[in-house]
Amino acid sequence: MTDGDACSVCDALARARAGDTAAFAALVRQHQRAVYSLALRMLSDRHKAEDLAQEVFIRLHRKLATVQSDTHLRFWLRQVTSRLAIDRLRREPRHELVPITEDLPLASEPAPGDPLLQRQLRVLIAQLPPAARAVVLLRYQEDLDPTEIARTLEMPINTVKSHLKRSLEQLRERITGAADATASGRDATPL
User: Fold this and answer.
1) Residue 120: CA atoms inside 13 Å, Cβ hemisphere, count?
2) Distance between CA atoms of residues 154 and 114, nearest Å
3) How far apart are the C-alpha atoms of 68 and 52, rounded to whole Å?
4) In degrees, to the nearest 5, what angle opens at C-alpha 57 toward C-alphas 54 and 63?
5) CA torsion, points 163, 131, 39, 12, in degrees to nearest 10?
6) Coil, strand, or helix at residue 82?
7) CA angle 13-9-80, nearest 5°?
8) How far is residue 149 from each of residues 10, 87, 125, 139, 152, measured CA to CA in Å?
9) Hey, which bits of 74-158 come out as E strands?
10) What is the pLDDT tens value at each position of the chain, 191 positions in all?
């Protein structure tokens, strides 16, 4: 972001606080992809992610006077999105999650790689408990360091590190187990 971009964001934030609806709409447009992307990865459902993103921006409109800068705004949006998603996941009854099948433009697109592995990772991440899922997504999708994640989710840094370690071990085991099952299945299948 250039200095000019930063100034325009600060200007839009100040105008939105003063009641300028066009400036608030500009802030929403600027941040909607990031909010929707995090919500979609957390909830694994387009409609729920859209509803959650809308709720986040409604809350932002109500709390706009407390937002101090663009950096604070990004932090605030991640924090509220994560918390609301965790709350929704906790309220929902446990059921089998359907993986995201559409290739939607997200805030941080993964580097080109194995699309089957990426799809499998999305499914496995969706199976993590809500808090662990939020930690993993904030770390690897939003590229936050553990200290920033701890601040965003208001949890101790050691809890964040524990969630990361356990989640990565769990993902590694499941991917390795699936690969082993596939390989042994291929060997046993007659041609």
Assistant:
1) 15
2) 34
3) 23
4) 145
5) -90
6) helix
7) 60
8) 24, 17, 17, 7, 5
9) none
10) 455 555 566 788 889 988 999 999 999 999 999 999 999 999 989 999 999 999 999 999 999 999 888 899 999 999 999 999 999 988 876 655 555 555 555 554 545 677 877 888 888 998 899 999 999 999 988 889 999 999 999 999 999 999 999 999 999 998 887 666 666 655 444 43
CB 52 within 8 A of CB 7: no
**Side chain identity at residue 6, one-letter code:** A
Place of tokens 């929707």: 36
| Calpha distance 66→12 (Å, rounded) | 15
All structural domains of the chain, each given as residue ranges with its CATH number in brackets, are: 1-95 (1.10.1740.10), 111-186 (1.10.10.10)
Residues near 38 by Cβ (< 8 Å), separated by ≥ 6? 78, 81, 82, 85, 107, 137, 138, 141, 142
Among all chains, which residue has been given the structure tokens 């809890």? 159
**End-to-end Cα, the chain, rounded Å:** 56
Burial class (CB in 10 A: 0-12, 13-18, 19+), 89: buried
Round the CA-based radius of gyration of the chain to a whole number and report it: 19
